[in-house]
Specification:
This protein is an all-alpha fold. It is built from 6 helices and no strands.
């Protein structure tokens, strides 16, 4: 359950954002913020801080320009910080990634009072697929991979679960 302190922090950030931009609250945006915050606040964790329950899913559908990015960011950034976690926002296009990183998040930081950092990782072609990497390693000749490959795989494996299949997607 989301704490009252976190709820107040999210509500305050939303109020500051609206006031700084001379905007009025949007009913749908408030519902999105509340639902994202509720779902993130309900994530059960074990003693080591790892998720111990079912995956947390929120599906939000709304038209262009309705404030979805503001809504999920205002809820998820404070929730992630409170949980001591990193937040990853994935999009289907590089254009949307760039809009979020170069426009939406700086605007949110400037106007909401939230303090956070962010970075951009562009395009599907630039990501390491752990499944393919694992399968290639299994089939490869028995020689150690280059040190840079080992470092990348070690970094990437901290963000993922073990590979279950070597079949292409």
């Amino acid at each position: 359950m989301i704490s009252n302190e976190l709820k107040s922090q999210i509500q305050g950030a939303y109020s500051r954002f609206l006031e700084a931009k001379s905007l009025k609250p949007r009913y749908g945006q408030r519902l999105m913020i509340a639902e994202v915050a509720k779902v993130l606040g309900d994530i059960a964790v074990d003693d080591e801080g790892r998720r111990s329950g079912e995956p947390a899913v929120v599906a939000v559908e709304a038209g262009t320009g309705t404030g979805k990015t503001v809504a999920y960011s205002l809820a998820s950034i404070p929730a992630a910080k409170a949980a001591g976690k990193r937040l990853v926002i994935a999009t289907a296009t590089v254009a949307l990634q760039e809009q979020i990183v170069f426009k939406d998040l700086p605007d949110l930081m400037r106007n909401s009072g939230l303090n956070f950092s962010f970075a951009l990782a562009k395009g599907r072609g630039r990501y390491l697929c752990l499944s393919s990497s694992t399968c290639c390693c299994r089939k490869a000749t028995p020689r150690p991979p280059p040190r840079s490959c080992s470092r990348r795989r070690a970094f990437a494996s901290r963000w993922t679960r073990p590979v279950r299949s070597c079949s292409p997607a």
